[in-house]
Amino acid sequence: MRSVSTPWGKATAIEELAVAQRADGRRFSSLVQLLETERGERLVRFAYTTGGTARRGPVTLRARDVERLHAALERTPALRDVLLGPSGRPVGDDDG
Predict the structure, then answer these.
(1) Quick check: 42 and 23 in contact, CB under 8 A?
(2) Which of 72, 18, 96, 40 is closest to 84 using CA atoms?
(3) In the structure, what pLDDT confidence band is assigned to residue 96 with cuts at 50, 70 and 90?
(4) pLDDT band at 53, cuts 50/70/90?
(5) Quick check: 18 and 28 in contact, CB under 8 A?
(6) pTM, rounded to two decimals
(7) Which of 68, 88, 65, 91 is nearest to 78 (CA)?
(8) Which helix (H) or strand (E) holds 80?
(9) Signed CA dihedral, 8, 41, 15, 69: sign only
(10) Contact of 4 with 13, CB cutoff 8 Å
(11) CA–CA distance, 73 with 81 (Å, rounded to integer)
(12) ∠45-8-13 over CA atoms, to 5°?
C-alpha cells in the first residue's frame, strides 16, 4: 500500500478505482481512493490522473462514467461501503 499526503497528514491508500475517460482526443482517468490516516480515520479522495500522478482539481464525470463508477465499486467493497453504506445503496435511501 502506498502513502499519500492529505490536509490531515499522511494516509495509506486502502482501495482505489479508476474510471478511464477521453475528451477531445486526450486520455485521462478519474480516481476514487479510500485512504486511512495514521489515526485510523477513513477519507475518500476524488482526483484525476494523466500518467499515474493523482492531481487535484475539479473531477468531472459524465452520466455514463458514473454508471461505470458504480460497476467498479463492485470490485472495491470497502470503498463501496464508505460511499454507499453496507446495503450498497446511498445512505438514507430507504425504498420501503
Answers:
(1) no
(2) 72
(3) very low
(4) confident
(5) no
(6) 0.76
(7) 88
(8) helix 77-84
(9) negative
(10) yes
(11) 9
(12) 45
- With cell 446495503, the residue in question is 87
Are 82 and 44 in contact by the 8 Å Cβ rule? The answer is yes
Alpha-carbon radius of gyration of the chain: 14
Q: How large is the average pLDDT for residues 33-52? A: 90
Give the cell for residue 49: 490522473
Residue 89 has pLDDT above 90, yes or no: no
Give the three-state DSSP class for 47.
strand
Q: Which amino acid is at 19?
A: V
Q: Which amino acid is at 16?
A: E
Cell numbers at residue 43, please? 477519507
All cell numbers assigned to 3: 502513502
